[in-house]
Amino acid sequence: MKGDAGSGESNIRRWIIENDWLECIVGLPLNMFYNTGIATYIWILSNQKSVHRRGKVQLIDATEWYGKLRKNLGSKNCELRGEDIERITEEFMDFDEYIAKKQRMIELLKEQKTVIINQAVTKGLNSDVPMKYSGIEWLGEIPEHWQVKRLGWITSEINDINHEMPKAVISGVAFLSAKDLLDNGTLNFTKDIKFISEEDFERLSKKVRPQKDDIVYSRIGAKLGKSRLVKVNTRFLVSYSCCIIRVKKNISMPEFINIILDSDFVFTEAKLRTVGVGVPDLGLREISRFPIPFPPLNEQKEIALFIEKKSEKINRAIATIEKEIKLIQEYRTTLISETVTGKIDVRKYRPPH
Q1: CA distance 44 to 274
Q2: Among residues 43, 82, 216, 282, which one has the fewest Cβ atoms lying within 10 Å of its Cβ?
Q3: Common-topology check for domains 8-94+325-348 and 147-294
Q4: CATH number of the domain at 147-294, please?
Q5: Are the C-beta atoms of residues 57 and 333 closer than 8 Å to each other?
Q6: Taking the model in full, what pTM does it have?
Q7: Contact criterion met (CB below 8 Å) for 62 and 27
Q8: Confidence class for position 16, pLDDT limits 50, 70, 90
């Protein structure tokens, strides 16, 4: 394609890129076309990109992949051989495969983490102890010396604020909602959060105020069943899309109960107890009836520490892979931007492997 910035051709290229239709640019050898000595490229377009290619553009340098003609035809002195076309095709397919493999590794690590957590909080850390049937179908067997308790029995508080939505202010008390229960297991106190006035804070928090070691549990909407431990001493409220759960520390460990509430098997219980056809809504009474596998306090501490160490290791591995994917995507994005604007010559580019 030709055309300076602002020209029709340039605007077409910009539209293609901004609408994420560009899958790949292939840099072709020089002198491939009759009386055309300029650098030429193939743009591969699609308006239905696969998930792994969305937001990304692949660059393939095929400038050295060619066969010489026996006799020049004007400026044309080379051509793509079958093996060259096959090599370009392999490079094109490898891009999908590489990103897909990295993302699959992340999914496998997450699955591994889930298995470790579920095993530890339902079977304990000693595989040699005698087992017994828990009486709960989805829970199965638990260690013989464990109990199964309703969540209400091991907590002193399961409550939410008044069911109204306060007005946002520029500065005030943090007001979190279900969206602030982050996927990394923490609560969001910094990015794009809502603040409410002191007056609204005092009025809405008459039933319950979150404190350190409380558990914020999402009970309404798409974030249903997410559990996050409050690890800081700060004044804040959560909307009625969540509830505050406060455990009895003399018999239970907040970290252990938080892990259980955030597990897949309790999420199964939560879905069974929700009401509503559209947005799922889980009542406080139903939450208090959750069956919880309940080992002795010292064992709760051991399990929570074990899961913390295992989770940190897996989370670091996931973060490393995510960073690698991000760097590759940013690198390719920069290259394609500079290529389209003419800042670099991709004939000298070699894609990383």
Answers
A1: 47
A2: 82
A3: no
A4: 3.90.220.20
A5: yes
A6: 0.68
A7: yes
A8: confident
Q: Which residue has the higher pLDDT, 344 or 190?
A: 190
Tokens of 228: 């996050």
Residue 194 backbone phi and psi in degrees, to 5: -95, 145
**Topology of domain 8-94+325-348, CATH:** Rossmann fold (3.40.50)
Query: Terminus-to-terminus CA distance in the chain, angstroms?
Result: 28
Confidence label for 335 from pLDDT (cuts 50, 70 and 90): low
Decide: 241 and 283 in contact? Cβ < 8 Å.
no
- In terms of pLDDT, which residue wins out, 325 or 226? 226
Residue 67: is its pLDDT beyond 90? no
Tokens encoding 106: 């992340």
- Going from N- to C-terminal start, the domains of the chain cover 8-94+325-348, 147-294
DSSP letters, 220-275, are BSTTTT-EEE--S---EEE-TTEEEEEE-TTT--HHHHHHHHTSHHHHHHHHHH-B
**DSSP-derived 3-state class of residue 9:** helix
Q: Tell me what the mean pLDDT of segment 199-215 comes to.
A: 93
- Measured distance CA(121)–CA(98) in Å, rounded: 35
- Euclidean distance between CA atoms 326 and 37, whole angstroms: 36
How sure is the predictor about 351, in pLDDT bands with cuts at 50, 70 and 90? very low
